[in-house]
Batch of 4 targets.
Target 1
Amino acid sequence: MSYDTQVPPAAPRVMRNGLGTAALILGIIGTVSGFIPLFFWLAGILGLIALILGLVGRGRVKRGEANNKGVALTGTLLGLAALILSVVGMVIVFSAAKDAVDEIDKAIKDSAPKDAVTKNLAAGDSAAYPDGLKVTVSAPKPYSPSEFAPGHTEGNKAHQVTVVIENGGKKAFDAAGVSLSARAGKNGVEADQILDEKNGLTFKGSVLPGKKATLTVAFDAPEDAKNLSVEVNPGFDHNASQWELKVG
C-alpha cells in the first residue's frame, strides 16, 4: 500500500497596495488644491498625509508586501509637491492680507483730520498742516460797521481781522468748507460775525497749489473785552486752530 506524500503548493501572497494607491489619490487632490492659494491649508494637510502614506507604501514594496512601486513613488512626490505649493499659497495669502491691512490703515490715516502745528496762536502766527495748508490770522483792528449791519449790537465794539489761506500742497483746496468763529472777553461770550459790504462771511471756491486766498472778517465783542479768540476750521479733514488776539 503506498501513500501520496506530495506537499500542496503555498497560497499566493496577497499584495498590500492600498497605501500607495491612497497616497496617489491624496497627492493628486492636494496638488490641485495647492494651485488655489486660499486652499493652502487643505493642500498642506493632504500633502503631508500623501507623503507619509507614500513612504510607508514604498517600504512595503521593498519588503515584497506590495508591487505598486510606481504608484507609491508618484504619491510620495505629489505629496511633497502639495506641501511646497501649500507653503507658497500661505505666503501669497498672508502677503495679500498684509497689503490689504496696510491699504486700510493708509485710507484711515488719509481720511483722519490733519493736525495743525499748534493752537492758541498769536496775531500773525500761522497754523501749518501736514498737507501743506497754512492759515494765518492778522492782529485785530478797530472797525466801524454801518448802522444797520447784521451781527453788530449797539454799545459793542467791532474788530476786523484778515484771514489768509495758503495752499502749499499738491492738490487744490476747497476753501468753501472753511468756517470761522470767535469768542470775546474773560467769559468767552460768542462774538457775532458782522456782515456788511466791507467784510465777507466765508471763503469761496478753491485755492490752487501755490496760491493764496484772503478774507476780511469783523466780529462784534463786548465793549470791555480785552481779548478775542478766533477759531478757523479748514474743513472736516483738518483740525481747527485758534488765535488769541488782544483787543481794547
Target 2
Amino acid sequence: MADTPRARALAKELRAARKAAGLTLHQLGDALGWSEAKISRIETAQRGVKAAAVEAMLDVLQVHGEDRERLLKLARDIREPAWWELGRDLPHQLTALIDAEQRALRITNVSLNTIPGLLQTRAYTRQIMEAGGVPDEALEENVGIRQMRQGILSRRHPVELRSFVDETALLRPVGGPQVMAEQLRHVLSASEAPNVTVRVLPLDVGAHAGLSGTFVLMEFPRSKPIVFLEGRSSGAFIDGPEDVQLFLEAIENLESQASDPTASKEILTRYQKQYESEAT
C-alpha cells in the first residue's frame, strides 16, 4: 500500500473497526491466521493490502452494509490513481483536502467573505483566483479542479454539505452584477438538493461565532472529524479532539444565529434579483 492519503485513510478505518469490535492486534491476527506484526503494518499503512485481505478482515470484524462496501471500494481504488493525481503536480495540502472531501460523510463550511468553493460557479471562481494572483497559465486548470471537487455533491452517495455564509459575501460584487446573479442562482439551485443546506448569517445578527475566521469541518463514517483552515498559499489541518471541539461548539452556536433555510433562500433571492436588475 503506497503511503497516500487514501492508503492512510483505509488503514485508519481498519484500525477503528478492530477497536470497535473489541479485538486486540493479537486476537485479530489469530482469527485470520496472520501475525500480529502483519496486522500492525496494515493498520499503519506500512504494508500493501489487497481487497481480498480487507474483505477477510471485515468478515472477522463483522463490518457489513454500506460501511463494508465503502471500505472494499477504497481498498480496490488505492492502486488506481484518482482524478486529481493524473498528470498533475498539486500541492500536498490540496490533494489531502480533496481526498478528505471524497471520504467525508458531512462537510460543514463557514464562510465569511466569499461563496464556499463547493458552491462556486466557474466565473466566480475565476474572478477570485485572478484577484488572488493565480498565474494565467495555471488559472483554467485551478478553476477546473475546483469544479471537479463539486462532484461529491451529486454522486450516487453524495456528501452532505452544510454551508454558513455571512451576508457580507453576498454584498461583495465579485465579477460584477452578472457574475453574482449567476452565482446566486447556482447557490439557490444547489440548495434544493436534499444533501445541501445553505444558511445565511445576516448582518443584523451582529457578532456571531463564525467571525473568528473561515473554516471547513469534515466528518467521516468512522474516523474522527477534522478541520481545515485555508491560507493564502497553503492550509492547515486540525485533528486534535480538544481543538476540533471548539469548532463543533462554534457550529452549534451558528445553528441558532443563522437564518433558517427558508429565510436564507429569501435573502439569497433578494440579492439575486438585485444583481439581475443591475446587470440589465
Target 3
Amino acid sequence: MSSIIYKIREDSLFADKNHILEQIKVKIIDSLDSADIYIEANSSMFLEWDDVFASYISHKLDNDINGSVSVNVVRIDDGLIVLKLGATVKVEVAARFYFSSKDPVDRGYVRLRGYVCKTTESFHTDILLTLSGDFSKDFEEIEVDEIEVVETINEAHFLEVELEWPDEYD
C-alpha cells in the first residue's frame, strides 16, 4: 500500500497536466450545474433574485506539509484504489436582482428594474477518486473509474446591491 501512495506522490500523478487532472476539473465544473445557491445581499430597497448560477474559474488541490498533494487512501483492492483529495474551488456567481419600492398610494410593491450582478466566491470540497489499472506501470495506463465531487457551492455573498440608475445623458 505505501508503495502505491509513494508512486502516486513521487511520480507526480497530480502535477502538470494529465488526463486524471483534466477529468477532475470537468467533474468540478459539472457539479456546479446542480448547485442550489443561497444569496446573501443587502439593499436599501426590497430585493428579490433568480437565475443564480456559478461559473468555474479555477481550483487548487490541498497540499500536505511537504508541498505535495494531500492524498488519503479510502480503499485499496486488487487493481483498484479509492483516494480522497481536497480542493479549494474558485467560482464566479451571477444572479439577476430585481428591485421594488413601496407605492405610497396603494401600499403595494412596484418592481422598478432588474439587472445581473456578479461576485467571486471560493469553497472547499472533498473529491473521491476511484482509479483502476496496473499501478506498477506508467500513469497513462491508469483509468479513472469514478470521480465524485462531494460538496459544491451553497451560498454567495453580494454585500450591498443597489439599483443602478441610467445616466440621463446616455
Target 4
Amino acid sequence: MKAFIQATVLAFAALFSLTSQAHSAEAGELTIIHPNAKPTRPGVLSSAAYFGVQNKGSDEDKILSVRSDVAKHTEIHDMKMENDVMRMFKVDGVSIPAGQTLTLGKDNKLHVMLMELKEPLKVGDKFTLTITFEKAGEVPVEVWVEEPKAADAAAAGHEGH
C-alpha cells in the first residue's frame, strides 16, 4: 500500500511538473505547442510570442494571421540581415507542411510581434492569442509569459512529438 501511495504521489508530481512547463491546444489535425511570450522590458510596450504547430494531417495548412486583446497590433514577423543590420518584417502567412512541426523561433527568426501593448507583460501573466489557420480556422490559445530560458526548455520537451 505504501508503494502504491508513493507511486501515485510521484505520478501526480510528474504530471504537475509537465503541465506547469508545457501546454498545448488541439485544432483538428493541428497541435499548437507551448504558446509563450517574453516579459516586457521597462518602458517598452511590445513583446514577442512563440509557439509550435504540429501538423498530423496529410494536407498542408497555413497560419494566416494572429490577434490578441493585449495588444493594439499583432503580426507575424520574420527577420533578415540587410547591410549588416538585422531587419524585422511582416509576413502574410506561414505554411505548416503535412506531417511536420514548425516552431516559431526555433531554427528560424519567425515570431508573433505584440505591438502597443495595453499594459506590460510580467512573468506569470497569461493571455489569449487567436491564431487563424487557412483550413483549421480560428484557434484561441492561452499564452504564458515566461522568461525566455524557461520557454525554450519547455518547448524543447516537445521535440519528439
